[in-house]
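S1.2 Input.
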Amino acid sequence: MKLIFVRHGDPDYAHDDLTEKGKREAALLAKRVKTWEKDITEIYLSPLGRAQATARYCLNELGDVKTTTYDWLREFAPEGIKNEKGEVKHVPWDYLPTHWTDMPTMYNKDTWTETPMFEGSNIKEYYGMVCDGIDGILAKYGYKRKGNMYTTEKEKDDTVLVFFCHLGVSLAIISHLINIAPTMLWQNFFVAATSVTVVGTEERVPGTAAFRVERLGDTNHLNAGGEPVSRAGYYNDVFQG
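S1.3 Output.
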C-alpha cells in the first residue's frame, strides 16, 4: 500500500484559497498526478478551500476516481494551545527551539500532550480523532492497528491512496503510522506547498505491516516546471536546486 500526502499550493490564508503562485504550482502538480491515474485507488480531501482548490486542478486531469472529503483532514488546529507567553494560538508548532528543546515531554510519543503549552487544550482528543480517521480508512483496506503495528492478510498490496491536505495534519498522521511524537515532525520537518510525500507499507513478516516514509516533501514537478519552491511555513530560504 502507498499513502501519498499532497500539501496544498502556496496559500492565500486570508481567503482560504491559493495565491497566483499557488495556482501555477497546482497546475504543474496536476501534470504529475496525471501520470498516477492508473495507480490511484481513492482520493481523500480536506474540506478547506486551499486544499480543495489544489485538488481541483488534479481532478480535472484524472478520470473517474472516487473522492471523499473528511473534516478531520483539515489543518491540525486544536483549541486552547498556547504560545511561549501563555497566549492562545492556533497551531501546535512554530515554537522557538530555545523554548521547546528543554521539555522532555516534547520528544516522547506517550507524553507529548502533557507539555505545558498544551495543558488545558483538547489536543489529545483532536490527535485521537485524526488517528481514528486514518485507521478507519486503513481498516477498510484490511490494515488493522494492533499495538504499534498493523495486521494484514495481504502479502503485497497495490492500493494507492492520495490525500490532499495540509502540512500539520499530514505530519500528525505520519507520526501515528511510524510511532513518534508529532511534535518532532512539526518542529523539525518541512513539506513545501504542493510537495508530495509517500508512505508505504512493508509486509516483511506474514500477517503484519509496518509503515515507512519513502519520500518526504518532493517538489520535482516545480523544479521541472521552473517554478520556485514556496517558503510558506518555513523560516529560511528554501533550497531551489
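S1.4 Remarks. The radius of gyration is 18 Å.
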